[in-house]
Amino acid sequence: MTPLVSDMAVHGMATEPVIVGVASGSLSYREAGDFTRAGRQAEVPLRAMHFERPLHIMRHQVSSSDYQLCVQDGSCRALDRGVAIASDRPAIQVSWHDAQAYAGWLSRKTGHNYRLPSDAEWAFAAGSRFKDDGAPVDADDPSKRWISRYERESERDLSDTMAYRFGKFGPHEHGVEDLAGNVWEWTSTCFVRSRIDKAGGAGRPTVNCGVRVAEGAHRAYVTDARVGGCAQGVPPANLGFRLVREEPFWVASVTARWGKVWAARS
Hints:
This protein is an alpha+beta fold. It has one domain (4-264): paralog of FGE (formylglycine-generating enzyme) (Alpha-Beta Complex), CATH 3.90.1580.10. Helix content is 17%, strand content 27%. The chain has 4 helices and 17 strands. The chain has helices at residues 64-72, 96-110, 119-126, 143-154; strands spanning 4-5, 10-11, 14-15, 19-22, 25-29, 34-37, 40-41, 47-51, 55-58, 113-115, 184-195, 206-215, 219-223, 239-240, 244-246, 251-254, 261-264. Strands 6, 7, 11, 12, 13 and 14 form a 6-stranded mixed beta sheet that branches. The protein has a 3-stranded antiparallel beta sheet with strand order 1-4-9, with helices on one face. It has a two-stranded antiparallel ribbon with strand order 2-3. The radius of gyration is 18 Å and the shape is globular.
C-alpha cells in the first residue's frame, strides 16, 4: 500500500503538517486499563476492531519549532529550557493539556480539525510497531503478571533519553515515522477500571481522566504532567504527541466499547 501523504502548506504562521493516510482495515486490540473478573486481576481479551475509512495521522510527532509558534502566539505554555527548538526534533516534556492546546491552536490556524488520536487509533496507525501488552494472569497470584511485565520492560536501556531528529526510528509499513521510539505520545484515552463477566464482556467502567494513555516503546499510564510515570515498566523518557486530522466526510467513533470501530459520516 502506498501511503497518502499531503503536501506542506503554510497558512499564516502555522505550518500544515505532513499527513499519512493509513488505509481502512482491522486490528486485534486490548483496551487500556485495569480489568478484574470475580474480584481478581484478569487478562484483557483481544477484540476485533475495524476502521471503515482511512485514518489521517501526522507522519512525525509535532516538532518543537512548530510548537514554539503556538507559544509565541500566546496559545501554548512554553517548553522547558532543556528542550531544543528545531524543526527536525519533537516537542517533548509536554503535558496532555499542552497537547490539547496545540491541537486547538493548529485547528484554528489551518481550518482543519486536528486532535489527539485515541489509543485504539494510535494502535491501528502503529501497525506492526504496536506492542500487545497482554500477559497471562495467575489466578492464585495475579501479581506475577505485573512482575513479568516489569521485568520485560526493565530490560530496555534507561540511559538513552535523547530526543532524536525525525527519522531516527524510521518509517513502518504505512509510512508513519518514529512510532514506538523513545518518545511516548499522548492519546485522548482515559485510564479505566472495569469488571469482565464470564462471557468476556466488560461492565460499566470507572473512568479516571486524570491519567491518560501514552504510547511508545510500550503502553504507559501517565498523569497530566510534563514528566510522567507509568503503572509498570520503564517510565516514559520523553512525552510528546502527534495529531490526527479529521477529514470533512468522516469522524472516527467507537460505536461499542467491545465492538467495532466505525468511521461515521459527520
